[in-house]
Amino acid sequence: MKKRVLPLLMAAVMSLVLLAGCGAAESGVMDTAHANAVAGGNSDLPVITWKMGSTWGAGNVHFTVDQRFAEILSELTDGRFTVTNYAEGELCAASQLFDYVSQGTIQCGGDWGGYWSGKDTAFELLSTIMDDFTALDYYTWIYEADGLACYKELYGQYNMEYFPLVTNPSESGIRSVKPITSIEDMRKMKIRLGGMMAGKAAQKLGINITAVAASELYESLQRGVIDGGEFSGPKADDSLKLQEVAPYWCAPAWYQSAGVNGVMVNKDAWNELPEEYQTAFETAARLCCGEQLSRYIYNDMTVTNQMIDEQGVTVTHLPEEDMALIRETCRETYLEECEINPNFKMVYDSMQAYRDTAANYREWTGDYGFGYNREAN
Fold first, then answer.
1. Is the model's pTM score more than 0.90?
2. Domain range for residue 324?
3. Residues 203 and 92 in one domain
4. What is the DSSP secondary structure assignment for residue 243, as one 8-state letter?
C-alpha cells in the first residue's frame, strides 16, 4: 500500500495546484474526490489529530498561514490527519512554544525562529537576515541549495523536525511619528527593532533600541513611549493599524530584507506517524510555502497602495552614504558572530555560498530580476 500512496498523493497535489489557479486556494476548498484519492480509500490509516500552537495571535496575517497549512494537510489525507490550530496564548505564551514542542507537550508549533535566538543566534538567520536575501532567495536556498538541511540540523539539536511555511518579503521599514531621512535622525529617537543581530548592528550605528512587544507597538507609538518601530510587512502592519499613529515610513527595511516562518514538529511524535502522513505533512508545508509567497507579495503590494494613495503615509529614504554604512555594519556584525558561534557560521556560510552561485545570474538579469518601475508618461 505504501508504494501506491505516494503517487496518489502527488496526483492529489497536482489537482490542488490546478484548483488553486481557479480560486480554490483562497477558499481552502478541495474537491472531495481528489482528497479521497490521497488515502486511496485506505481505511487502515489511523485517524490522528495534533495540536499546533503558534507564536502569532488570532487574526494576525501570519497565523492565517498556520491555519492554511492545516487545511492543506487535512485535504491531502481526506481528513484522517488533522491539525488543530491554537493562537498565541491559547496553549502557551509565544516564548514557551519552543519548549512545549521540543519536550512533546504538544506535537507542533508555528514559529518565527528569531524568537529562539536566545537559545542559539543561528535561529535568527533561519528566520530573518539583514540587508541580504529576498523572499525568493530564501525559497530557492531552502529547496534547491541545501538550506533545508540547516533547519533540520539546528532544530534537530532540540528534538525537532522543521518545515518552512512561508518565505516573507522585505519588511515595511521603520514606521515613525516624525520623518526619518538619515542615520542621525534615528540616533535622536527611541526605536523598536526586532532581531538580536539587528540590535547589535543598530548599537554599532549609535541607534537607541527600545524593547516593545508587538502587541504593545500601536499604543507605544501613540503614547510616545517610542518614536518609531517595525513589525512586519505592509499587510501585517496594517493588521495593527500602525499607519494611524505613525504616518511616516522609512524604507527599505535593511534590518530584515526577508524572513521565514515555519512549523516545528516534535521528533518523537513525527517518528510515530505512518510514512504516508509524513509525506503528506512535508507536501502540505511545501505547497503552503509556494502559495503564501505569492499571497504575501500581492497583499503587500495592494496594502502599500492603500497606505500611500489613500491613507496619507509618507515614505522617506536614507541617503546612499548612510545605506553604504549600514551595509558594511550588517556584514561586520554577522562576521563577528561567525567567530563566536559555529552554528551561526554553518548557516551563514551556506547562505553566502548560495549568494556566490546567484551572483552572475543576478548581475545579468538586472532590471528583469524583479522588474523595474516605468516612468510616468
1. no
2. 174-257+313-358
3. no
4. G
